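3.2 Worked example (two chains)
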Amino acid sequence: MGVRAMDEERLLERVARGDRAAFEELYRRTAPWLAVRLRRRCADDELVADVMQETYLAVWRAAPAFAGVATGGSAVGWLWTIAARRLVDAFRRRARQARPPAPATLPPMVAPPAEEEALRDAVGDEIGEALRQLAPELRQVLQALVLDGLTVREASVLLGVPEGTVKTRARRARIALREALS
């Protein structure tokens, strides 16, 4: 079986053994969507490029520790977790240097964002509709905490709001979802 015919988990197994061709194929497959997701969180292309480089360096180094190979986890989910945490780290470095990151200002999208598609696929239509009815700031908090698996502190840095605001928005989102579904 050629490198191109493998799924990402198998590619990661080969990367763990030092296979550069598998790493190059993993990068070719995942870098475009990863860059898009990072750009939705940060409008600074230079910072996104740095985070991408740090992410793939971490993947190369940590591939042997990828728990998904043994447990059936998602290689792309693992990759996104690394990237999201690297982005949070980059925001923290910038905050220490007193230069806040440029907020992401994106043109209106024709297609729904990947996070909304993932939410819609992961939940039923009724819950998906309730999620779509949430205010954008509440939906962003849920995406950071639930989909991205970030801590409250990491979501706070990523979204550029205080930790208390993240907690309040998460609570408001849960209440709104509960009311919409009852």
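3.2.1 Second chain
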Amino acid sequence: MAADTALLADPRIASAIELVWHEADLLDRKEYQEWDRLWAPGGRYVIPIDPQTKDFAATLNMVYDDDRMRRMRIERLTSGYSISAVAAARTVRTLSRFVVRHRDDAVVELGSAQVLVGHRREETFVLGADVTHRIRLDGAGPLIEEKVIRLINSDGAVNASGFLL
């Protein structure tokens, strides 16, 4: 237990966790343009179907976005012309159970649990996921290099969400 507490005293880890919490707040407030500025150039946003896969490029994913695709997704969500924008869900998410998977002077990789509660069209729903954030620390501030969301029901039917995970 003392080792876990010592990890929180590491400013690299504290900075990475603060970025993840800030990201969650931006997503719940639908501040997608500001959210996009949290990403390192070439960053990947991935929601795999296979909960065990590590080779996202060679497997089927619900989402596998690079910079260009992420910005196109944001445009669809904010334009008002797509069903995902018209029927956008209100969300509140909690990220906890942080585990450091890797750290060095340039990168911190965190694992966490996410519980997202959403409300859309008079219905409330809950999504759970294991999330991995790879945070680049060697620039002016921390940036997301990769975010992988492993939904606990990823192999089941998934409806259009109208929000970003």
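3.3 Remarks
The longest strand covers residues 90-103.
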